[in-house]
Amino acid sequence: MGRLWLIEGLPGSGKSTFAEKLCAMIQGAFYSEVDAAHPVDVHDVYWVNERPSHGTILEEIEGGWLVRYEEGEERIGTDVYELPFPLHTRIMCERWRRYVKRFEQEEGDVVFECALLQNPFTIGMVAQDVSLEAIDAYVQAIASILKPIEPTVVYLELNDVARIFPIIYDERPIAWQHGFVEYYTTGVYALKRNLADVSGTVTVLEERQRHELDLLDWLPLRHIRIQNDERSSFEELTKLIEEESSRSCKP
């Protein structure tokens, strides 16, 4: 069986670049958060509680069907990321269970980004402002499902979000800038706390990272935290892997 790598961190922390370099080094398969072929994540996928007459059915799950529509097709159902949190968590936990059974038969390494922490916190905290206890329980459930295959979580941490995020923001296209800030400041979490604009987005990101790191320390999974304000994360991981290999080779 190969190893599953879960790359986590805030937007702009270098996850995608890091994941691509790691994938090349280990000669594994990389699935980004928006990859239509992702074995677990469900970007632009809808849940329908009656069998649909059009669209591509991905699987039957939780008394309904996951469906992806082609451009121009009528979209019925609800985006999985916009479902009520309890139903969303049940669907995703079942996706993880099914994937772990398949992964146990695989030989190669696989790299995911954002699948363990980012999605639960953006949907549960940012968009819906459910209790932290509910988010923690969801992530703990995923971790329990994953424990038999012993994944490695790499968290790219930003020590100074208030300094780094505006730099990242300025580097991105205008459409990304508007869409990102809108998502983070029109969700229930920001609205309840009167957080707006880039400064409000930074506050939400800081809170999100704090909660993610607090939870990470409680998960029964091997994890590596790498401070990445200066974009040296891959060099740091390479050192850790080399040190680990050296220790394992000693009699």
Tell me the structural class.
alpha/beta
Radius of gyration: 19 Å
The name of the CATH superfamily reads P-loop containing nucleotide triphosphate hydrolases
Number of strands: 9
Could you tell me how far the N terminus lies from the C terminus, measured between alpha carbons in angstroms?
A: 25 Å
Question: In the CATH classification, which architecture applies?
Answer: 3-Layer(aba) Sandwich
Poorly predicted runs of 5 or more residues: 245-251
Order of helices and strands: EHEEEEEHEHHEHHHHEH
CATH-defined fold name: Rossmann fold
CATH class: Alpha Beta
Order of strands, main sheet, comes to: 2-7-1-8-9
Report strand %: 15-25%
Mean pLDDT: 90
Q: Shape from CA axes? A: globular
* Contiguous helical run count: 9
Give the biggest beta sheet: 5 strands, parallel
Number of domains: 1
Q: How much helicity do the residues have?
A: 40-55%
